[in-house]
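Let's sit down with a protein and look at its sequence and fold side by side. Which protein we use is up to you, so please pick one and set it down. Label the sequence line and the structure token line clearly, so we can match residues to local backbone shapes. Go ahead whenever you are ready, and we will take it from there:

***
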Amino acid sequence: MQALALKYRPKSFEQLIGQDAVAKSLAHALDSGRLSHAYLFSGLRGSGKTSTARIFAKALLCDKGPTGKPCEVCDNCVMANEGRHIDIIEMDAASHRKIDDIRELIEQTKYHPASARFKIFIIDEVHMLTKEASNALLKTLEEPPSYVKFILATTDPLKLPVTVLSRTQHFRFKPIAKSAVVAHLEQILKTENIAYEEGALEILARSGSGSLRDTLTLLDQAIIFSREGITQRAIADMLGLLDPAKIGEILDVVLRQDRAGAIEIIKEVENYNAETIIDEMIANLKDKFLRRDAKFSLLMYERFFRILAGAKSMLAISPDNTYAISMMIFMMMEAVNLREIDELIEVGRSLDQGEGYASASAPNLNAQSS
């Protein structure tokens, strides 16, 4: 079975997920003929850099192009989609990083394209090149032959020499929004005819941390792991996370001030990763905040967030993560008490203001008798 990341790899700018600004800019450059000789794509792994580079290369070579909408039927488009176009040369700088590799590439730039209008070089993880290799690439990158285009991709543009950055048009790929990832996962699962719970997809999207490729890899794993549809419980078990219902149970215990219940829960969760528990609680509270859950006031959200952030810092210095989680839960209980104190203070202020108003409006009997 083909991996989902490969099966659903985008073939056009319209199919790119979460990179609308980059897709529109490149399509406009193609349609208007304003083309540079070198491009740099930077961003998180799995955010679409290599896929965009391949789409852009295909658009440059299409018989009806350069165009923002390749025809997909000409020989150039077909060969590009199948990864066998002789004039699209891909190199992984992570494994071909030495000066001899770059000299071999530079030698290829001296020869005209075999069948297309351009010869395109896609260099992935370009920041991995040695200093000597980067310097060797500079001259060709600055003044390549008219038929040569360079597309460089990197996850760490800060490691590139300034001289390389100044010779390229730089496009920055942002982490893909969770909502866009969830929508894409839903579309894939409907196409594959696999049942799912939306909450399960949200956990997968959150675990992917903005990388669509990583999320699709997790989805592949989830399909194998879940026998009867993809559920929240199954995904939590697969990733070693707490069941979302247990996170809700922790918050209920905090609101009820149930200290005995809190101790029981602490015993239940001590085998889970403490940092993951805190991350899941933050995500749960964020969801409640956006849904305007009436159980929590703005003051409580603010105090809970401070406590959770402090607990993450505590993990770095504490040899006992269970103790850190225990402190976190009981501090959240104290935060609920503080809320009640704040409410009593507000009530007291209201009463004081009412008494002040009453005394001001009461008749002055001494003044009347005089």
